[in-house]
Design goal:
heterodimer; A: alpha/beta; D-Maltodextrin-Binding Protein, domain 2; 2 domains; five-stranded mixed sheet; globular; B: mainly alpha; MetI-like fold; 12 helices; disordered C terminus
Amino acid sequence: MRSKFLTSIWALTMALAMPSAAQVTVAAAADLNAALTELAASYEKSGGGAVRLSFGSSGNLFHQIQNGAPFDVFFSADLDYPNRLIEAGLAEKSSFYRYAVGQLVLWVPASSPLDVEHRGMDSLLDPSVKKISLANPEHAPYGRAAVAALRHFGVYEKVSDRFVLGENVSQAAQFVESGNAQIGFVALSHALAPGMKEKGRYWIIPPDSYPSLQQAVVILSHSSKKSDAAAFVDYLKRPQSTEVLRRYGFSVPEKASEVKP
Amino acid sequence: MDWQAFWLTIRLAFLVATILLAVGLPIAYWITYSHWRWKFLVEAIVGLPIVLPPTVLGFYLLVALGPRSPLGRWWQALTGHTLAFTFEGLVIGSIIYSLPFAVQPFAASFDSVDRRLLAASATLGASQFRTFFRVIVPLSASGLVAGAALSFAHTMGEFGVVLMVGGNIPGVTRTVSIDIYDKVQAFNYAAANSTALLLLVISFTVLSVVYALNRSRLPLGWFLDRSR
């Protein structure tokens, strides 16, 4: 009786612990949340296999992968993390693909008195701005881009004492969306995401004022589903898929796949 | 080693432990001696932070007490700023988050005081207040130190709430746990390691003190024999 009970507990535990077969597990940068969710759904509908998505900051996901996290594919918000994984032998060099370029915007809630669309960077100098949210430039690509743009426009020194730093660009967006910060540097993909789109106004920061936010994907070396993973990455190269990425605020270079690291 | 973050964390933990000593004692006293039939509900509320993820507390501090809520607007009118991104915000968050770590040891040690001593004290004409400070507090001193030490250590090690409402401002809300996280994210493992090691040593010391006190708690029988 007792052993039967223990056996059933064991069976239940194993059932809960086993991932379902033939499912591609994807680690992706936070700015891809809306776009990749839509693409994964259409991929599944079109007959591709199941795709399981995990979103986080690229840095965090990178550390998890370094420490053996069981992902098959990694969509980073930059080129550096995928390159490091390739150098460390943790990712397939041949799978490296620049799928999109992220865009940085300056965002305010819809109720804000700031005319960010016309005043641009000058909005930051408005006395009503007490806190400016951005992703942590120490490790988040969008944070580095924000600091570069601030320096480009010569306002960094004037506003740096009002920074609040999000752990990643999603948190920076959330700080300003909740009204705790008055203005923030967020990804265009957040500004255009459902649920955020109607809540605010934004100004697209000129792309020549910060180093380009090129983003790359790699397939991980330890993956046991490399062909399924490659099929999903190939799906994203189709014109219909790049159109989805563009709709969510990414720019996609025409001959993206031909550029190798 | 970011000493600014270190001293900020020490200041936060010390402040929270002191406030919790003042706030926790009456709550623990009430929990121990009240006969109210719904008392268990209060105990459940006090214990909530042990089981709730810090993200729940962080979320409410940010949104329910943010500038969009009536409570948040009231706070803003009173102080001129929001709770998020301020040292006060961290203090309030930490008090709630560490409350059970102070109240539960307090209540447990009050409960271990022999009720006959309280009756004797009352018979001899001492007020409830006097009985509390002359009988209960001396007999539960080790529990009080343990509660204060635990809330200090728990606040030092707090991460989730600070990450969600702090905004990582140097000298205001950047605590050591956030500093370690940032250093790991930026691949600065050597710096992360030295800070982490210091935190490990401090936490171990505090816990050793707590458990040493627990062991040396005077057995009540021994105490009664001696005072006879």
